[in-house]
User: Fold this.
Amino acid sequence: MKIQLTVNGSRYEKDVEENRTLLRFLREDLGFTGTKEGCGAGECGACTVFFNGKTVNACMVLAVEADGGSVETIEGEVKDGKFSVIQEAFDRNHGLQCGFCTAGMILSVKELLHRNPKPTEDQIKDGLEGNFCRCTGYTQIIESVLDASGQLPKKGELHHA
Ligand code: FES
Ligand code: FES
Assistant:
Protein backbone atom coordinates (compact mmCIF):
# COMPACT_ATOMS: atom_id res chain seq x y z
CA MET A 1 0.00 0.00 0.00
CA LYS A 2 1.29 3.46 -0.83
CA ILE A 3 1.35 5.93 2.06
CA GLN A 4 2.23 9.58 2.44
CA LEU A 5 3.97 10.87 5.51
CA THR A 6 5.48 14.19 6.47
CA VAL A 7 8.65 13.70 8.51
CA ASN A 8 10.40 16.71 10.03
CA GLY A 9 8.61 18.93 7.53
CA SER A 10 9.46 16.94 4.38
CA ARG A 11 6.91 14.87 2.56
CA TYR A 12 7.50 11.20 1.67
CA GLU A 13 5.43 8.81 -0.41
CA LYS A 14 6.31 5.13 -0.38
CA ASP A 15 4.97 1.63 -0.68
CA VAL A 16 4.80 -0.24 2.61
CA GLU A 17 3.63 -3.66 3.76
CA GLU A 18 0.51 -3.51 5.89
CA ASN A 19 2.18 -5.05 8.93
CA ARG A 20 5.23 -2.78 8.92
CA THR A 21 5.56 -0.60 12.02
CA LEU A 22 6.05 3.13 11.84
CA LEU A 23 9.36 2.53 13.63
CA ARG A 24 10.70 0.18 10.94
CA PHE A 25 9.33 2.42 8.22
CA LEU A 26 11.16 5.44 9.65
CA ARG A 27 14.41 3.61 10.27
CA GLU A 28 14.68 1.18 7.39
CA ASP A 29 12.64 2.75 4.60
CA LEU A 30 13.29 6.44 5.22
CA GLY A 31 16.67 6.27 7.00
CA PHE A 32 15.74 8.07 10.22
CA THR A 33 17.93 5.82 12.33
CA GLY A 34 18.08 8.22 15.27
CA THR A 35 14.86 6.58 16.46
CA LYS A 36 15.85 3.37 18.23
CA GLU A 37 14.22 -0.01 18.61
CA GLY A 38 14.51 -1.39 22.12
CA CYS A 39 11.75 -3.69 23.29
CA GLY A 40 9.56 -3.50 20.20
CA ALA A 41 6.59 -3.91 22.53
CA GLY A 42 5.61 -0.45 23.76
CA GLU A 43 7.53 -0.73 27.03
CA CYS A 44 10.84 1.14 26.82
CA GLY A 45 10.21 4.43 25.00
CA ALA A 46 13.37 4.17 22.86
CA CYS A 47 11.21 4.57 19.75
CA THR A 48 9.36 7.70 20.91
CA VAL A 49 8.47 10.14 18.12
CA PHE A 50 5.90 12.87 17.74
CA PHE A 51 2.94 11.79 15.63
CA ASN A 52 0.45 14.51 14.78
CA GLY A 53 1.77 16.57 17.69
CA LYS A 54 1.72 13.89 20.38
CA THR A 55 4.41 11.48 21.49
CA VAL A 56 3.85 7.83 20.58
CA ASN A 57 5.85 4.63 20.70
CA ALA A 58 6.55 4.16 17.00
CA CYS A 59 6.86 0.39 17.50
CA MET A 60 3.17 0.30 18.40
CA VAL A 61 1.88 2.23 15.37
CA LEU A 62 1.57 0.69 11.94
CA ALA A 63 2.99 2.73 9.08
CA VAL A 64 -0.35 2.47 7.28
CA GLU A 65 -2.05 3.99 10.33
CA ALA A 66 0.25 6.99 9.98
CA ASP A 67 -0.80 7.59 6.38
CA GLY A 68 -1.38 11.28 5.76
CA GLY A 69 0.08 12.25 9.14
CA SER A 70 3.03 14.21 10.38
CA VAL A 71 5.98 12.82 12.33
CA GLU A 72 8.85 14.52 14.14
CA THR A 73 11.95 12.50 14.95
CA ILE A 74 15.15 13.37 16.80
CA GLU A 75 16.73 14.40 13.49
CA GLY A 76 14.25 17.28 13.38
CA GLU A 77 15.61 18.70 16.64
CA VAL A 78 18.79 19.97 14.99
CA LYS A 79 18.01 23.27 13.30
CA ASP A 80 20.58 24.99 11.07
CA GLY A 81 23.24 22.65 12.44
CA LYS A 82 22.49 23.62 16.05
CA PHE A 83 21.26 21.36 18.82
CA SER A 84 18.05 22.22 20.63
CA VAL A 85 18.04 23.66 24.15
CA ILE A 86 17.12 20.20 25.48
CA GLN A 87 19.91 18.46 23.57
CA GLU A 88 22.45 21.00 24.83
CA ALA A 89 21.24 20.52 28.40
CA PHE A 90 21.65 16.74 28.08
CA ASP A 91 25.16 17.25 26.74
CA ARG A 92 26.13 19.69 29.53
CA ASN A 93 24.74 17.56 32.33
CA HIS A 94 25.87 14.15 31.06
CA GLY A 95 22.25 13.10 30.54
CA LEU A 96 23.38 10.28 28.29
CA GLN A 97 25.92 7.52 28.33
CA CYS A 98 25.38 4.88 25.63
CA GLY A 99 22.75 7.14 24.06
CA PHE A 100 20.34 4.37 23.16
CA CYS A 101 17.47 5.88 25.11
CA THR A 102 18.36 9.47 24.33
CA ALA A 103 16.36 10.19 21.18
CA GLY A 104 13.16 8.98 22.78
CA MET A 105 14.03 10.62 26.09
CA ILE A 106 14.63 14.02 24.50
CA LEU A 107 11.35 13.94 22.58
CA SER A 108 9.48 12.96 25.74
CA VAL A 109 11.19 15.85 27.56
CA LYS A 110 10.10 18.17 24.76
CA GLU A 111 6.51 17.02 25.19
CA LEU A 112 6.78 17.38 28.99
CA LEU A 113 8.19 20.93 28.84
CA HIS A 114 5.53 21.89 26.33
CA ARG A 115 2.85 20.85 28.82
CA ASN A 116 4.72 22.04 31.88
CA PRO A 117 7.60 24.48 31.27
CA LYS A 118 8.88 24.30 34.89
CA PRO A 119 8.35 20.73 36.09
CA THR A 120 9.37 19.63 39.57
CA GLU A 121 11.61 16.60 40.01
CA ASP A 122 8.57 14.44 40.71
CA GLN A 123 6.79 15.77 37.64
CA ILE A 124 9.89 15.01 35.55
CA LYS A 125 9.95 11.45 36.89
CA ASP A 126 6.25 11.05 36.12
CA GLY A 127 6.64 12.59 32.67
CA LEU A 128 9.48 10.25 31.75
CA GLU A 129 8.14 7.06 33.31
CA GLY A 130 7.63 5.51 29.87
CA ASN A 131 11.27 6.02 28.90
CA PHE A 132 13.78 3.55 30.30
CA CYS A 133 17.48 4.24 30.67
CA ARG A 134 19.83 1.41 31.59
CA CYS A 135 22.90 3.60 32.04
CA THR A 136 22.49 6.88 33.83
CA GLY A 137 20.44 6.03 36.92
CA TYR A 138 18.26 8.98 35.83
CA THR A 139 19.97 11.55 38.07
CA GLN A 140 21.74 13.29 35.21
CA ILE A 141 18.61 13.09 33.08
CA ILE A 142 16.61 14.91 35.77
CA GLU A 143 19.37 17.51 36.05
CA SER A 144 19.32 17.92 32.27
CA VAL A 145 15.59 18.60 32.31
CA LEU A 146 15.94 21.06 35.20
CA ASP A 147 18.68 22.80 33.24
CA ALA A 148 16.66 22.83 30.01
CA SER A 149 13.76 24.41 31.90
CA GLY A 150 16.00 27.07 33.45
CA GLN A 151 15.77 25.81 37.00
CA LEU A 152 18.94 23.86 37.67
CA PRO A 153 19.67 24.22 41.37
CA LYS A 154 23.17 24.53 42.71
CA LYS A 155 25.01 21.25 43.13
CA GLY A 156 23.99 19.42 46.29
CA GLU A 157 20.41 20.68 46.39
CA LEU A 158 18.90 17.73 44.51
CA HIS A 159 17.27 14.96 46.51
CA HIS A 160 16.92 11.76 44.58
CA ALA A 161 14.96 8.79 45.84
S1 FES B 1 10.95 -0.08 21.07
FE1 FES B 1 9.04 0.90 21.16
S2 FES B 1 8.59 1.09 23.27
FE2 FES B 1 10.42 -0.08 23.20
S1 FES C 1 22.11 6.34 28.11
FE1 FES C 1 22.20 4.20 27.79
S2 FES C 1 20.15 3.56 27.98
FE2 FES C 1 20.09 5.64 28.55
User: Anything to note?
Assistant: Residues 96-102, 133-136 surround FE2/S2 (inorganic) cluster (ligand 2) (CB under 6 Å). The helical segments are 22-29, 85-92, 102-115, 121-127, 139-148. The chain has five helices and five strands.
